[in-house]
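Researcher: I need the complex structure. Ligand is S-adenosyl-L-homocysteine. Inputs:
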Amino acid sequence: MQSPQPTPHDKMMFQLNLRQRGISDQAVLKAMEDVPRELFVTSLDRGYAYRDTPLGIACGQTISQPFIVAYMTEQLDLQPSHRVLEIGTGSGYQAAILSKLARDVVTLERFRTLADRARLVLKELKCSNVDVILGDGFDVPDTLGTFDRIMVTAAMEEIPEALLGRLEPGGVLIAPVGPADDKQVLVRVVRTAEGFYRQELVAVRFVPALLGIAREL
Ligand code: SAH
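Model: Output:
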């Protein structure tokens, strides 16, 4: 049986929860209000779309908890001129949020099924500044150039040097760092003139980043 559609009350509680948990950037809150999360979850989960919880999507992956999406987005400190790289498209929800706050978003996903679905939903929502690419975040094509902001949404044991090298001076990267299938810590790295300034934020739990494009669909 299909679960019910989210109600206006669900959406109100969703916003309230984000504010109560400390999200204060108005542009981030507006983006979270404007992107319909129910379009990014499976039809069975539609009625739970505005709960503050991660949900399963295809290929054994997850759409992140809304609070974490908002928190990571806030920590990225986006400007409308920014070019952003996301690693781990998943459902495309985080990419849709980023698309409201930045000039261009490039998002890489290692599962073709997820990349194709995300592309469709993002098109339906007219997020025309998002480019969904089937690719490996451990091997970002040189042709994609450098970025003002990078967000990794799958857990990495450590942040690859090559990825840090893709940050523009003054750029910010945020990534869950730690072992697969255990708690990780959200790390924020700022590229300054002197080097990389690294800060640990909060404990999180993400699915692991895996090497290479998936062989299965
Ligand atoms: N940001 C997503 C949720 C991410 S779940 C959303 O908003 O729905 C993590 C995603 O990272 C999964 O879809 C997984 O397949 C992908 N992933 C894992 N390792 C990767 C890699 N090396 N390159 C690209 N994507 C990867």
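Model: Summary of the prediction. The first strand starts at residue 55 and ends at 56.
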